[in-house]
Amino acid sequence: MNSGTTNPPQQRHRRTGITLGLRQNLAQFMLLVAVNALVGGTLGQERTVLPLLAGQVFHLDLYTSALTYILAFGLAKAATNYFAGTLSDRYGRKPVLVVGWVIALPVPLMLIFGPSWGWIVAANVILGISQGLTWSTTVIMKMDLVGPSKRGLAMGLNEAAGYLGVAGTALATGYIAATYGLRPGPFLLGAAYIALGLGLSVFAVKETRGHARLEAANHTSAHATAHGQLSNREIFTLTSFRDKSLSSVSQAGMVNNLNDGLAWGLFPVLFAAAGLTIEKIGILAAVYPAVWGAAQLVTGALSDKYGRKWLIVGGMLLQAAALAMIAVGHDFGIWLAAAVLLGLGTAMVYPTLLAAIGDVAHPEWRARSVGIYRLWRDGGFAVGALLAGIIADAYGIPAAVGVVAGLTALSGFVVAVRMRGTDHYSHRLG
């Protein structure tokens, strides 16, 4: 089975000179890959340090309280994802990207100088808004540039860059924190990323909305009314519930980030309680997104060749198995192996879900559909923080990890039963 896309003839608008394709837009595409690596690094500054900051500096005992920053981040990012798609359709992609970087400017200062946990939570609300605008827009812009034939590869490159940025920064901040303390050193790296990302977005990134319009002019969709005539409410309903493929993708994305929120908030605490050093905790915090990031260079392209559905199903089940290993494990070696498997399972899923949205959604409303998918997906951070915190407070962290493992497996079975292969959607270009 293939992804449901065909290899189209080269498309060029005679008057504007706009051309679709990865090779034809390689310089701008790779610039956006670099920008998204900086977006990921801005998030990665927190992955190792903030869970330790909660206990060691602010003395938060309850897991539910300590995870409030992930809850705040998830809610803010999820809501902003929705508006990012709508705003980028209305005003263009580049202005939304630039505004996202501007919003991030105060975050490192708040993390460095925040005198109470409320400041950390507020910084994560701002970071969530910024991430929703910047990451969503880089996804949409890459889809615009490449057209339909290499969408899985494009999403693999995008997500690989972002999560390698997360991983590298998580590892670096672990060593910085071990050497210089939890504050301010780790967050100075985030400040540098924000400054560089803003500069590149203002001076080097180009608008891509014209590419989406070119694709739309040559696009046939399975949805009879899908040629830009759907309202925002209709697109929300279609993406969330009505369309079997879009809704399957949305729930899988939500569960995927539910277990990522668990990994972000509770794994460092679990590892610290087992007596691991900050350096080893930093390694474990980095290995999972590193494998996730690097493997997406392969899995995105595989989904172009073999289809989206079964790669998603297999990835969700592999994640469930890895989480079960973490729940029953007691030493660095087991947890390291589980982190590798968790990263591999996530890599099978993450770019494939985005590519599946691009397969089904019409180019005229694809940005909005991507935003709605990302609303559900990043809502998983908030659900994961609440669910994991409540269960961990009542029964311990291993129990919370076990419950999330079960939900992840269930999500994979939902995709297996409900989702159509994306060759159901005929994207013929004429």
UniProtKB/TrEMBL annotation:
CDD domains: MFS_MdtG_SLC18_like (cd17325). PROSITE patterns: MFS, SUGAR_TRANSPORT_1. InterPro entries: MFS, MFS_dom, MFS_trans_sf, MFS_Transporters, Sugar_transporter_CS. Residues 20-423 form the Major facilitator superfamily (MFS) profile domain. Keywords: Cell membrane, Membrane, Transmembrane, Transmembrane helix, Transport. The chain crosses the membrane at residues 20-43, 63-84, 96-113, 119-140, 161-181, 187-205, 261-278, 284-303, 310-328, 334-354, 375-391, 397-417. This is MFS family permease. It is a multi-pass membrane protein. SUPFAM superfamilies: MFS general substrate transporter. It is found in: Cell membrane. It comes from the Bacteria.
